[in-house]
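Notes from hallway chat w/ T.B., transcribed later so I don't forget. T.B. wanted the structure written out for a chain they're using in a teaching module, and asked if we could keep both sequence and structure tokens in one place. Agreed to drop them here.
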Amino acid sequence: MFHKHFFLLGFFLFALSLNAQKKYHKSYYKNGQLKEEGWLKDGLKNGYWKFYHQNGKLQKEGHFKNHKPTKYWYFYRENTTKEQEGHFKNGSKNNWWIFYTNKGIINYKCQYKNNLKNGFCFHYSRKKVIKAEKYHNDKKIKEWTDIKSFKKENSLSDLY
């Protein structure tokens, strides 16, 4: 019986110590407007976070792991239109990123690796692809202004 109570007490203290390491954090601008909110674990940003413009509108939202952005993030302008969205891995842009015009319409999409353009970029006008580019380590290595020629030279499997 003593061992059972000792085990339960140990388990309770362990669970309590885990909760003590994780806390919800909020900080504010000087004008009193919410600036950021999210989870801290051992003093580092971990989990879901939101950041706000000084006018109170959402600026960006996404996840952190050990104080570095990770997973999928969204970024917004002060007028609430979407500015960009995409994947982070270990704090760096990776995979596909989408960039929007001031009116919230897709302007272009690019593939990234470690914060550098690596792969294809597609530029849009009136919701249609008008130009394609290929990058390696942030340097443009090819451009197509005719989408038919792009499709002829590239297969869909090249995009992923």
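Follow-up for T.B.: The two ends are 59 Å apart (CA to CA). Might be a good example for the class.
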